[in-house]
Design a protein that fits this description.
Helix content is 30%, strand content 41%. The chain is α+β, with helices and mostly antiparallel strands. A hairpin with a 2-residue loop joins strand 5 and strand 6.
Amino acid sequence: MHHDEKQVKLDELIKDHATVMFTTVDPHGALVSRPMTVQEVKGSVLTFVTQADNDVARDGGGKSVNLSLADGGTYVSLAGTGRVDTDLAKKRELWNRINEAYAGDAEDPNNVLLEVTVEGGEYWDSGNAVAQLVGIAKAAVTGEAPTGKHGDVTA
């Protein structure tokens, strides 16, 4: 798969997923995951709203992170690097009522954007629930592993 095809596949895999599990490494070396809402996807950059004084900004800014999602028979794991951005114009552009309810005003300097530049990842797509059940039943009878699609979304 060429770079453009991989970008299209990445867009397809994440287009309907507003929430991902955002994993960072805390100061003690432990992996910590939390649900985060995707505010924007532009190319290989996913943008989130968070607060400068919380763990995700501290542990994700300038560091390696992982984003994962699961939906039915589709699973995606993306590795990238986080970057904290304080651009007020960009915050205003992405701000919505949900952000306001949780975090107040876009102008609050504690509210920041956390951008993740995806450097690579993988996906597994076993189809819808019916296809999964048929595959599992077939595997139980034939002894062959269920089929599905697997690929990478690296550049």
